[in-house]
Write a structure and sequence with these properties.
Oligomer: single chain
Number of strands: 10
Largest sheet: 5 strands, antiparallel
Order of helices and strands: HEEHEEEEEEEE
Strand content: 35-45%
Number of helices: 2
Distance between the termini: 75 Å
Radius of gyration: 32 Å
Structural class: alpha+beta
Helix content: 10-25%
Strand order of the largest sheet: 1-3-9-5-6
Shape: elongated
Length: 202
Amino acid sequence: MKKENNNSKSTALIILCVIILILAVIGVSYAAIFYSKMGEKVNRVTTGTMTMSYSENTNGINITNVNPMSDDVGRSLNDENQYFDFTVSASMSGNVIINYTITAIKEADSTLPNNAVKVYLTSLNNGRETQVLAPTKISDLQVASSSNIGVPDGQFILFNSNFNKTESRGYRLRMWVASDYVLPNVSQTYKLRVNVYGNTEV
């Protein structure tokens, strides 16, 4: 009789364990399906395009045999060959933001050192200029690294901004020899090329 009771208890215990195991499996499966459904997301691809345009023959500015000058004089340089005008334009499609970076890169045949040259960047709006980069020596500019998305390493960063709608923005770059630089008795030059890099943010 005791044997039968023990067998019955063992059988009941086994059945109970099987039921608990089945319920656990069903519960885990349900949870997995539920969270999978909760995590589903419809991705809609939205795009934007960005361009840089300029009227000069090249995308940059050169100085050769220029005497050092103060920031006040440099900021007011107005002859056509003393500044570089360019436009950054964005065409938006959908709900997207385009982050962009204006950079500069020194040409290999430049002979002036980076600490001898200053740059000054303004935005243009109906003929009115607004400073976006104060007069700064090239050597003091931030240099792009792998942390700057989409910008090649080693380029000098002039300005960061973004677009959230279709529009065009004009900029003017001036460059001159810093007032504290002592010119040697040889011809010296500095050539800077301007680039714009962008990436989208949905």
